[in-house]
Fold this protein.
Amino acid sequence: MYRIEVCNLSGWEPYGYDDYDEPLRYRTLEEARLDLYEAHLHCLEAIEAGDMTDAPPLSDFRIVLLDIAGKPVVIFSLTDTGTIATAAPC
């Protein structure tokens, strides 16, 4: 399973929660990447519409591969276009 995380003042935190207040998880890396890219595009559209003042850049996001216990195993960073840049073991 994969999880999207965003970097903020307190460090890396899950980005997005389900109806049970659990971090969103994705079955594939591609599913997580596409959801992250679409969410970022919605933020950019909201800025253009004047509904938001700013959005974190894609470099402030990462996708984490989780083991069966939910612990991070591999971290995938993203480029400015939303493609996978690097993968590093935790």
User: Anything to note?
Assistant: The two ends are 15 Å apart (CA to CA). DSSP finds one helix and five strands in the chain.
